[in-house]
Amino acid sequence: MYALYSLAILVLAVALFPWFLYQALRHGKYVSSVGQRMGVLPVSFNLDGDESIWIHAVSVGEALTVRALLPDLRKQYPDLKIFLSTTTITGQQIARERLTEVDAVFYFPFDLPVFVNRTMRLVRPRLFIMMETEIWPNLLRACKRDGVRTLMVNGRISSRSYPRYRMARGFFRQVLAHVDQCCMQSDESARRIIDIGADPSRVTVTGSLKFESLESPSAAAGRGAGRVLRFFRMTEGRSVVMAASTLKGEEPPVLAAFAAVRRTHPATMLIVAPRKPERFDEAEALARAEGYRVVRRSSLVVDSEPQADVVILDTIGELAHLFQVATAVFVGGSLIDHGGHNILEPAVHGKPIVFGPYMSNFAEIAQTFLDAGAAVQVGSPAELATALVRLVSDPAECARLGASARTLVEANRGARPKTLAAVAALLPPAGPRLVVAR
Description:
Elements: H1 2-27, H2 34-37, E1 52-56, H3 60-65, H4 70-76, E2 81-86, H5 89-98, E3 104-107, H6 113-123, E4 125-131, H7 137-146, E5 149-155, H8 162-167, H9 169-176, E6 181-184, H10 187-195, E7 203-205, H11 217-229, E8 240-246, H12 251-264, E9 269-274, H13 280-289, E10 294-296, E11 310-312, H14 319-322, E12 328-331, H15 344-348, E13 353-355, H16 363-371, E14 376-377, H17 381-393, H18 395-411, H19 415-426
Parallel strand pairs: 1-2, 1-4, 2-3, 4-5, 5-6, 6-7, 8-9, 8-12, 9-11, 10-11, 12-13, 13-14
Helix pairs in contact: 6-7, 12-17
């Protein structure tokens, strides 16, 4: 089965090569990372050949979630390096900028034995931690062969991916036998991973680390939020609608909803934050086509109010800070069938949150917010317009939703000590027993 899996990766790589080549030539993507993805790391990466804890976080959300664990890992394992890999370019950028406790950041290798083995020799992990559900069969097999303990952290099996895993349940039973412990976000995800082959004795529900990894507004202000907000010196009373992490097909209904808001609140400003950097140009063109004055965040003047109707957030790492200026927040990836994006960052800032019908990637969290009356779900672009008009027109409702969202975040913290206990069980710290501050 592993040979067939590796062959499938090679066939897929050949089939996708023209697309990767286009992305490299058009957007400059992947060019600088190819060597690391083939297991070629800088000479200075681990010069002394130290043993390590290797954490893999596929993209931005997972990388930021790691923040909940790093201080304790650094304290409990002072003799081990901590290395972090990502798959995406934006995840790499955020990890390098924000995860200061990590010794080095690199790109995750292609999951073929030759590249995996080369990376393993350089990283020298004693523990491999995969954030959420990054199941890479050849890497996990290599870890088992080399005696490296493996831990899935903040694991989830979404309703979208669950049927695909079940189709290959026989193979995944072999793969999951190489995972020493699965720490899942919810009872449902635990049930699903057991159904696709995980040993029930190795599965535990720890809750979501995403609640633990959120920075408070005061902590963020001390770490750079104030600088970002200097570009948004908003007039008191001016409303700001934010569309966060939008995907292709979502800007048109967002712009239509914004037009509805402007009919009753003409001074309102819209901030659009496309999920992918290569879509900045497209989002700007769509807004200009509607006749709006549009400016990019990178062109704003410091210590002044944006003289525009629409601002395109074309910078990396600033979105979480800018929730502070929002009156209402629409979280993208949810109006199209993509599975939604994380709603916790606007929640910790006490902002009213609106999302669409497609939230399968965050189903448990979304339902928790809906049950608590801490978010609004819409079923169509027309409902999005209605919801945003209502929120901008009703400060009391905005305050109620925002307060409920922030309270819910605080009430759901608790996954960190459980997760760190799972780490200690697999890799006992030297010296005193692990004690986690609560």
